[in-house]
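A quick aside before the break. I want you to see a complete sequence-to-structure record at least once, exactly as it would be stored in a machine-readable document. Don't worry about memorizing anything.
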Amino acid sequence: MGASLQKYKMNMSNNQTENHPCEVSLWRIFLVFAKLGAFTIGGGYAMIPLIRDEMIKRNWMTDEELPDIIAMAQSAPGVLAVNMSIFVGHKLHGVKGSVIATLGSVLPSFVTILLIAMIFTNFRDNPVVERIFKGIRPVVVSLIAVPMINMARKNNKTWWAWAISALTLFLVAFLSFSPIYILLVLIVASVGIAVIKNKKEAE
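That is the input. The structure line, written in tokens, reads:
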């Protein structure tokens, strides 16, 4: 997470110089994240391809920045989609951008869930409603899988990166290991390797 945070700060500084992110209005940030929040079905991971498409289309983010933001959002406490909104909003317009992006991503789902809670008790056993949810689930799986595969192709440029990805997938999917422990081990290992390399270079 430390390396991701450092890269995020460097990218944010560079983008502020090149793209002038403060020129992006708060209203525009709210509308974009409200659209993302309204069409994200299946949780925070399903929001990743939508965020990527919207951010890259508007030149608000690059493919190189996305894995770092996801790593930080995943490592921080809280909901992934909200954490990503905070990081991206801050990149675009500082603290105000974080607040507005978070409101935009949360408000549509809040209103939708509130309405569903009010009326769903009368429709939850409806066969049509059950079929709709069954049809949505496979789409959600695809929405989550596609950005993960694309990220792996673009960022796993060495054999050991692919090995770590495969091992992590196996541990989490088949042995029910907690991702938190895996992240902690990788952070400690990365820091240890960096320290050893620095000592060797100093010698």
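Two observations worth writing down. Confidence is low (pLDDT under 50) at residues 1-5, 12-21. The longest helix spans residues 80-119. We'll return to this after the break.
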